[in-house]
Write a structure and sequence with these properties.
about 260 residues, 6-stranded parallel sheet
Amino acid sequence: MKTLIVYAHPEPKSLNGSLKDLAVSTLENAGHEVRVSDLYAMSWKAVVDGADYGPDASRPLKVVRDSGRAFNAGTLTPDVLAEQEKLLWADSVIFQFPLWWYTMPAILKGWVDRVFTHRFAYGVGEHSDTTYGERYGEGTLAGRKAMLSVTIGGLEPHYAARGVNGPIDDLLFPIQHGILHYPGIEVLPPFVLYGTDRMAGEDYPDVAKAWEERLLTLESTEPIAFRRQNSGDYEIPSLHLKEGLELAGRTGFGLHVRG
């Protein structure tokens, strides 16, 4: 298996840094190939601008159109092209990051903004009466798996169904469904560590053991059963879930998960 780790934390000696290093050693010792995109170490440029698209940037800038034209022409900047190549190389992708203000760090969102260009991660496939593009289960990155490894300072009950911060599945839905499932990736259940601001050194061996177990079962873990857009579950072109397919009482984000 070939795994790309996209790592977003500014401190190499942080818990996130330790989890990243452990992922590399565990997977390599199991015979897997591993590449790492350490965004802070790379001084990753987090903002989209016309420089990303070279001669294909228009004035005024039109990010969707210009990024797609630059992708087709091969004129995206070398750093973006390198990350797209890593994604195409990988069988699985691990995103290692802390939950900051209910989402990923800005540098990681900037990686998504710049790397997931038009004609690469979206805007592909046929649009017709029966198909609304290749997305949500289809697309350029179909056949790959991804998993979020997330550290959270707050306690687990704060992120439960009735927790004040909201359910963790809801908080991660925009990333797992909207960023990863959208271009075709199968999303594995996340590895979430709670209360990390209070974690002591003696707690780490148990954390490391649990993380190693998850890493060694990446290939056999069942993905989250997100509905595929073009599987017949949705009306086209409204993209509303067909009546009667949801479980009794299920609403909101949960509608888009089978079973």
